[in-house]
C-alpha cells in the first residue's frame, strides 16, 4: 500500500521561526534591562554600605585623636578641634568631619558659620555605640557615620560625625556599570543564539507549518474525524494510539485508547494484527463479536521519516450479511433451475404416456414422482421436530444434490420442536453444511460418492451438532487456523467473502460457553457442543463474554 506523504507548508506572512526569535529577543532585552536596573540599585546599596564603613573608620580615627579628646572635654579656646578635623577630612576625602559635644554644640564644621551652633538632631551615641546611615545634611546627601567621643578622663564628652559625599558613591557606581552592561549584552547574545536554535528546532518539529496552518489543520482534522462514517485510528511508530474517532471506538469496542498501545486495549487476534500491520493487504476482513469489519492500514511518512500509520475501519456487517444471503439465494436459484429442467423432463414423460394411451402407467408414474419428493422431508421430520430446522436441512440437501453431493441425516439424530438454541443452531448447521458441500463438491469422488453425514442430538444438558464429509479434509497443523476470520483455501465465489463462516460459528459457540473441534486429515469432522441455557458452562461462557466486553470498554 502506498504510504501517505506530507509536504512542508510555506504559508504565512511571517515565518513561525521569525516570530519566535523576535519574541524571545524582546523577552531577553526586557529581562536584561530589568536585571541591569536591579543590579544598579543593589550595587548602589552595597556602595552606600561600603562608604558608611569608610566614614565610620574616619570617625574612629577622629575620636582617637588626643587633641580633639582633650579640647572637647576641657574647652577648645584655641580652636584646635576645627583645624584637626579639617586636616583629617582632607586626608580622608571626607565631605565633613563634625565634632559635637554632649550639649549638641558644633566644635568643627566645613561651614565656619555653623561652628558653635547647636545641631537639630539628638546625640545618638549616648548608648556608647557607633551608628551609620545616609544623611541629608546641609552639604547634601552623604554616607554618614557617628562615633562616640571619650575625653582623656574616659568620660563620654560628645560624638564625631563623618560624611562622604554622594558624588563619590555615584562616581564609583558609574565606573562599575559598563562592566555589568557588557555581561548583560553577552548574556543577551547567548540567549539570542539559543533562541535561534530553538526556533529552528520548532520549525523542524512542526514540519515548516506556520501557526495559521497548524490551526487550520487542527480544525480540518476535527471536522474530518467527527464527520465521516468510518472509523479512523492513527498509530505512532511505537504502537501507541494518537488519534481515534468516535466511530472507531464504537466498532472496535474500546474506551479511552489515546496514549495506549494497541496490545493494551485489544486482545491478541486478527483485529489487532490488522491494526498493527502484521496482516498486510487491502480490505482485510475482520470478524468481531458484533461487527464484520474491513480494515485498511496506510503507513505515513514525511521526508523519508516514518510517522506511524493511519488505519480506516469500515462496518460491513449488513453488507456482508446481504451478500451472503444473496449468494445463498443464487445457489437456491441454480438448484430450482436445475429442478425445473428435471420437472420439465418428467412432464414430458407424463405427457408422452398420456399421448400414447398409457393412462395407468401415467398415473403410476405421477404417484411415484410425488412420493419421491416427499420422502426427503418425511425422513428429516422423523428426527427433527422443529419446522425451521427441517426446512434448512431439506433446502441444503436439495442444493447439495444439484452439485453432486448427498447430505444424509444420521439415525441417532434427535431434536425437539422448540430447541433452546434454535437461532444459533440454524446459523451453525447452515454454515457447517455450506463449508462441507463446498469442500466435498470439489474433491474427487470416492466409491461411496460425495457424501456428508449430519448429526443433531439434544440432551438435557447439551446439544451436539456433528458434520462429517469425505472431502479433502483439513491439512495437518491448521485445525486452529481455520477458525480465524479471513482464513480460506478457496477463492471468492460470487459476491460472498470467504473465510467468515467458520469464524462466525467459532465466535458464536464460544460466546455461549460451547466448544467446537475439527479432525485433521482426509474427511473433515466438525463437532459442536452447546450447553443448555442455565447450565454452569453456559453461565461461564456468558460471564467470559461480559468480562471481555467490559475489558474493551475499560481499555
From TrEMBL:
SMART domains: HATPase_c, PAS. PROSITE patterns: HIS_KIN. It is found in: Cell membrane. It catalyses: ATP + protein L-histidine = ADP + protein N-phospho-L-histidine. It holds the Pfam family HATPase_c. InterPro entries: HATPase_C_sf, HATPase_dom, His_kinase_dom, PAS, PAS-like_dom_sf, PAS_4, sCache_3, Sensor-like_sf. It is an enzyme of class 2 (transferase). Keywords: ATP-binding, Cell membrane, Kinase, Membrane, Nucleotide-binding, Phosphoprotein, Transferase, Transmembrane, Transmembrane helix, Two-component regulatory system. It is a multi-pass membrane protein. The chain crosses the membrane at residues 21-42. The keyword ATP-binding applies. Its main location: membrane. Residues 424-534 form the Histidine kinase domain. One of its GO terms (cellular component) is plasma membrane. One of its GO terms (molecular function) is phosphorelay sensor kinase activity. PANTHER family: SENSOR HISTIDINE KINASE DCUS (PTHR43547:SF10), TWO-COMPONENT HISTIDINE KINASE (PTHR43547). This is histidine kinase.
